[in-house]
Amino acid sequence: MISIEDALIAGIGEVAKVDGHDSGSGTVNIFLYADRPDLALREVMRILGKERFMTSGLKAAFRERKGNDYHILWPPGLSEFSIM
Q: Which of 33, 43, 34, 38 lies closest to 7, judged by CA?
């Protein structure tokens, strides 16, 4: 988890700001602030390696700063997303 977070911090540039992580119940969450979540997701996939990202069970979603609902970005077809 720390190595992934460090790679994102080093590679994400101005696209997003890494804002920490948490873990528990078998999940790990890494939080980013981004004005363009779609662009941030592309950069995350580039940094982690698109194939690794697409096959590893990773999920991505965003919510508006003043909102509570998550909008799923990845994977296609995912219907539920929550932060544990």
A: 43
Q: Report the distance separating Cα 77 and Cα 29, nearest Å.
A: 20
**SS3 label, residue 45:** helix
The model's pTM: 0.84
18-67 residue pLDDT tens: 999 998 888 888 999 999 999 999 999 999 887 776 667 889 999 998 99
Query: In this structure, is residue 81 part of a structural domain?
Result: no
- For residue 52, the enclosing domain spans 2-74
Enter the tokens of residue 48: 């982690």
Q: How far apart are CA 13 and CA 36, in angstroms?
A: 13
For residues 83 and 36, what is the distance between their CA atoms, to the nearest angstrom? 20
| CA 79 and chain centroid, separation | 16
- The whole-number pLDDT of residue 56 equals 76
Count structural domains, the chain.
1
The answer to whether position 80 is within a domain reads no
